[in-house]
Amino acid sequence: MSNLIKGPDGKPRCSWCSATPEYIDYHDEEWGYPVDDDYHLFEKLCLESFQSGLSWRTILAKRENFRAAFRNFDFDEMARFTQKDIDRLLKDAGIVRHRGKIEAAINNAKCAKELIKQEGSLAAYFWRYEPDRKKLAEPQTVSTCEESVALSKDLKKKGWKFVGPTTVYAFMQAMGLVNDHAKGCVSRTKVANARKQFKRP
């Protein structure tokens, strides 16, 4: 049971919540609940890309700054960003100032628009990669799965950047394509119920 901790209310939660108090609300209210909103999905994949090599704690603390800097991750607006925007973002101390990741986010906004033309929505595309629950490893024991590898490969083929299999798996965990809450965690059953009621796009 080492993958569980007691939360401030005495209830068991995933042990990663102990890293910072801010994780509790994120864990309880967001992580693992299924999402079908294209803008929310795009935002999360962008933020996971920015997290590459860093901690989620760093990104979560800057999330509102990221939203302001990237126009709430409206991919239609982001696709029109120019060099002037890149220069603006590189001077923004409120976000992660990594040129490659900033340029990747803008590139991926253009790719998102193209993908929606082809698939109807990002949600319809991403949810096709929902793993078979019976084939998944024990919660929080792996950092990739067969489907995250396949999704990463297809996104890269379509021109997306900073979307490796580990980044994509973290996205899948967060957006509810898998329920990776630890067994015994107070949120595991809640997320399982939300996934049962969720209408796949």
Automatic annotation (TrEMBL):
* Entry keywords, A to Z: Metal-binding, Zinc
Q: Name one GO biological process term.
A: base-excision repair
Give this protein's Gene Ontology molecular function annotations: DNA-3-methyladenine glycosylase activity; metal ion binding
Quote the record's binding site residues for Zn(2+).
C14, H27, H181, C185
**InterPro entries hit by this protein:** Adenine_glyco, DNA-3mA_glycosylase, DNA_glycosylase
Q: Under which name does UniProt file this protein? A: DNA-3-methyladenine glycosylase I
* Species this chain originates from: Thiogranum longum
Mind giving the lineage of the organism this protein is from? Bacteria, Pseudomonadati, Pseudomonadota, Gammaproteobacteria, Chromatiales
